[in-house]
Structure formats: structure tokens, C-alpha cells
UniProtKB/TrEMBL annotation:
<keyword id="KW-0732">Signal</keyword>
<feature type="domain" description="Phosphatidic acid phosphatase type 2/haloperoxidase">
    <location>
        <begin position="354"/>
        <end position="471"/>
    </location>
</feature>
<dbReference type="InterPro" id="IPR036938">
    <property type="entry name" value="PAP2/HPO_sf"/>
</dbReference>
<dbReference type="Pfam" id="PF01569">
    <property type="entry name" value="PAP2"/>
</dbReference>
<dbReference type="InterPro" id="IPR000326">
    <property type="entry name" value="PAP2/HPO"/>
</dbReference>
<protein>
    <submittedName>
        <fullName>Vanadium-dependent haloperoxidase</fullName>
    </submittedName>
</protein>
<feature type="signal peptide">
    <location>
        <begin position="1"/>
        <end position="37"/>
    </location>
</feature>
<dbReference type="InterPro" id="IPR052559">
    <property type="entry name" value="V-haloperoxidase"/>
</dbReference>
Length: 483
């Protein structure tokens, strides 16, 4: 995903008259207490502030995810974008809260007060929306080799929300948005997310190799092999919560000779196949098949695993009556920071440890050449994601999401969430706890035929450790009463 680091911020027309009028108004307010209204263009349409603003912009983000292709849609890249947008929203919202002395939490990067022209013109909506728009424009406004520019979509969604063009002048761009977006841009400018070094395959039996699916035929198809080296959003390093290698093996040969490895290969063979073969009778139940496909969302034109959990965050927030824009911004930011670090930690395990484990498909087809995983794309091709098996990214995301949600809501809850996987026979499911949903998400990867049980177990453990770290250290409550 290519970012345009030279884009002026924010995307507004800055005439000399606009600057003087806005800054003059702020100065008059500070010195005399008198508000001198700055010239404002007429609204193209009435604002449509339906629903929470942070939820709205996360819906826009997920719409962007649906249109990305190839490496642009890699899990780490999507999680990074979500963390950047939501953390910037939270810092902008924190500046708004500082202005009205209602701040409860520490910012993610930095905050501060600004000169306000009053509450009557929906400042909270504007600081959130204009910040989100400019972060997304920075990330997705330039076309890549795989995906089109999202500028038109972003402009449309901005105008739908505000009734104006994003290029129309707003004094909050000068006082809030520009500084927040610039800080986030600088914070992530050298985070190693653009490292495109090609993966080097190992010839050892048990080491990951392309499975031969249409999009996974060579080493250069390995998805973001350097993502474990990306600078975390909260962790100290990608390896901070790294688990011991399976069976504490040092070499592939050691691992493949263990009884546990052989047991896990046999479990995936019996429960994760697409259909019966001459050598393997499928034992997966109908509910397990439904669960496997419910959590998949690995194919184009879906919201992908990261987007699914962002959508689930909004669905839960609405069902559990999170109505404060401040609390919604905090919830989404905590979730997004945890997901972003979960991607880094999972990819650290996949590529930076002694064991870059091959997919079950590669192991099982030595035993049963006709075996294929249940996982299927829109063209009917059965596939395994094009990166090592241990640990599961889905499971790591699931553990991180459930860990944040359980801590934020202080326990369990009953909620209903959905899926966009085109093969899923069940489109919505109800759970009685966040851990229950996460456990099914992790376990579903075995039933889909693309992961071993330890991929799920270790991923869940890493994800929950990240959630605990993020919730303990980020956006924490102020030590004193609100100012």
C-alpha cells in the first residue's frame, strides 16, 4: 500500500482571507470574549449526522477494505490503517474534550486546547469527521498497482455526512485537524511498513512453501513477510509476547517427529477437508462447517478479518448502548491498537522464529494427494492463505478483540454479529461472551483446513496478552477528576 507522504494537510482551500478571518475570530474570542464569525460557504445540503461519528467513519474504512486487492488487503496493512485512523480520531476528540474541560482519558499521542467558535456548529462531529477523512485520504487517496484511488468514495461519504465538500474551509482544520493528522503521519512515517523484501524459501521438509493455489505459486507471493518487524503501536517489539515454538522444537525435523505434530495433522485431515476422498472420510459436523465459513472472510469484496471485527465492535456497541461519542472513540481505538499489534506479533511468529511452519495442506497432501482444505475463493478454488501456518492471524486478532471487549465492558455480554463470506450458510450468530466468539473464531481455522490446533491456541494467547497490555497502558483514565 503506497502512501503519499507529501500530501498537504488537510485537504482544504486556504486563502489568505480565510486564514485571517479564522485566526482573527479566535484571537477576538481569547482577548475580548467576543466571537467574530468567519465567512463560511453555504451548505450544499443539510448535514446528516445519523448515528455515532466514529462508527460512521469506521463504516467508511470498512467500505475501503472491500475495494482493496492483493497485498493492499493484507491483514497487517488493514489493521495499521484502522489504528492510525481511530487513534487520530481519539486525539482529536481529546482536544475537543480539553476545550470543554470534560476529558477523562489520556490521549494516544498528544492533545491540547484550541480556540473554539462555539458548540452550535457541531464541533465534535467536525473534529472527528475531518480528522478521519484526512487520515484515510493520506492512506488510500493514491492508486496502487492493485487498487484504485479511494478519493471519490471518501469525498462522497464526507459530503453525505456534512452536506459540504471536504475542500470547503473549516477553521477546525487549522486549529485541530492539521496538527493531529501530522502527528500521526510523523509517528508512522518510518515504521518499516513499506519493506518489500522478498521471502526466502527453505528447502527443509516442514518449512512453509507456496501451496500452488492461483495466488500462491512462488516465494514472492508470500504475504507481507516483513510485517513482524513493523514498529508496534503499543508493544515494545513484535516479539514481546512471542510463544515457545510448537513442542519447543528447534528444527523442523524435531517437530515433525513428535506424536503431537502427527496428531494435529490427522485432526486437520479429518475435520478440515473440502470433501471425502478415497483415503480420508470427513468428520466435520454441519455446525462446524457453518462456523468455519462464518469467520473466514478471506476473499475479495468482503470486509476481511480485520474489518469483520471492526464491524462487530460497532454492532456490540450499539446493542450494549454505548451512546457517547467519546466512549465510542475510545472503544474503537483500543480495539484497533490491539488488532494492529496483533498483526505485528502474529507475523513476527510466522516469519521471525525458527519455525516457519508449512500449512496443513502441504503436510496432508503427502499422505492424501486428493485432499483440499474447505477454504474456497469466489471461483471455487480451494486455497490456504499464502504465509506460514504458526500462528493463526485470525486467532491472534480474535484474542486481541475479545480481550479488549471483555475489559472495556467489564465482563461478559450477549450479542449478535454477522459475516460477509459468500460461502457462509449462516449470516449472523449470537454469543454469550466475547471469549466464546473468539474461541469459535480461532477453532474455525482448523475446520476450514488451514491451521493446526496450536496455531489457534498460541494465537489466542498472544492476542489476549496484547489486549491486556493495550488496555493497561493506552488511553488510561486520568488520575484526577475531569477538568
Amino acid at each position: 500500500m503506497k502512501e503519499n507522504n507529501d500530501r498537504p494537510l488537510p485537504r482544504v482551500r486556504r486563502t489568505w482571507r480565510h486564514r485571517v478571518a479564522a485566526l482573527g475570530s479566535a484571537l477576538a474570542l481569547a482577548v475580548t470574549g467576543t466571537v467574530v464569525a468567519a465567512p463560511q460557504p453555504a451548505l450544499a445540503a443539510a448535514p446528516n449526522y445519523d448515528g455515532d461519528p466514529t462508527q460512521y467513519w469506521n463504516q467508511v474504512l470498512v467500505d475501503v477494505f472491500r475495494q482493496l486487492n492483493g497485498p493492499d488487503a493484507a491483514p497487517g496493512r488493514l489493521a495499521r490503517a484502522a489504528a492510525m485512523m481511530n487513534a487520530a480520531i481519539f486525539d482529536a476528540e481529546t482536544m475537543y474534550r480539553d476545550q470543554w474541560r470534560t476529558r477523562l482519558y489520556q490521549p494516544y499521542l498528544q492533545a491540547g486546547r484550541y480556540f473554539s467558535l462555539g458548540e452550535t456548529d457541531h464541533e465534535e462531529e467536525r473534529v472527528i469527521g475531518r480528522t478521519a477523512y484526512n487520515i484515510l485520504l493520506d492512506l488510500f487517496g493514491t492508486a496502487t498497482l492493485h487498487s484504485p484511488s479511494m478519493t471519490s468514495l471518501l469525498d462522497q461519504r464526507f459530503t453525505h455526512r456534512f452536506g459540504t465538500s471536504p475542500t470547503d474551509f473549516d477553521y477546525l482544520d487549522l486549529q485541530v485537524v492539521s496538527s493531529v493528522v501530522q502527528r500521526m503521519r510523523q509517528f508512522r512515517s518510518d515504521d518499516r511498513s513499506t519493506d518489500s523484501t522478498v521471502y526466502t524459501l527453505s528447502p527443509e521438509r516442514g518449512a512453509w512453501r507456496p501451496t500452488g493455489d492461483p495466488s500462491c505459486t512462488a516465494a514472492q507471493n508470500a504475504v507481507t513477510p516483513n510485517w513482524g518487524r513493523v514498529k508496534p503501536f503499543s508493544m515494545t517489539s513484535g516479539s514481546q509476547f512471542r510463544r515457545p515454538t510448537p513442542e519447543q522444537a528447534i528444527t523442523y525435523d524435531q517437530l515433525l517427529q513428535t506424536t503431537e505434530y502427527q496428531r494435529q495433522v490427522d485432526l486437520v485431515r479429518r475435520f478440515g477437508g473440502a470433501a471425502d476422498t478415497a483415503k480420508t472420510k470427513l468428520e466435520r459436523t454441519t455446525p462446524q462447517t457453518a462456523a468455519a465459513l462464518f469467520w473466514a472472510n478471506d476473499v475479495d469484496d468482503t470486509y476481511r478479518p480485520v474489518g469483520q471485527l471492526l464491524v462487530h465492535t460497532g454492532q456490540v456497541a450499539r446493542q450494549l448502548n454505548v451512546t457517547s461519542p467519546y466512549e465510542n472513540a475510545r472503544l474503537y481505538t483500543l480495539v484497533s491498537l490491539a488488532l494492529a499489534d496483533a498483526a505485528i506479533a502474529a507475523w513476527d511468529t510466522k516469519y521471525e522464529t525458527r519455525i516457519d511452519l508449512w500449512r496443513p495442506e502441504s503436510a496432508i497432501r503427502e499422505i492424501d494427494p486428493d485432499w483440499r482444505p474447505l477454504s474456497v475463493d469466489r471461483n471455487g478454488n480451494h486455497f490456504s492463505p499464502c504465509f506460514p501456518s504458526w500462528v493463526s492471524g485470525h486467532a491472534t486478532f480474535a484474542g486481541a478483540w475479545a480481550g479488549i471487549m471483555t475489559r472495556f465492558f467489564d465482563g461478559n455480554a450477549t450479542f449478535t454479529v454477522d459475516t460477509e463470506d459468500p460461502s457462509a450458510p449462516v449470516k449472523s450468530k449470537t454469543f454469550t461472551s466475547f471469549a466464546q466468539a473468539a474461541q469459535e473464531n480461532a477453532q474455525s481455522r482448523l475446520w476450514l483446513g488451514v491451521h493446526y490446533p496450536w496455531d489457534a491456541d498460541d494465537g489466542m494467547a498472544i492476542g489476549d496478552a496484547i489486549a491486556n497490555h493495550v488496555f493497561t497502558n493506552e488511553l488510561t483514565e486520568l488520575p484526577t477528576t475531569p477538568r
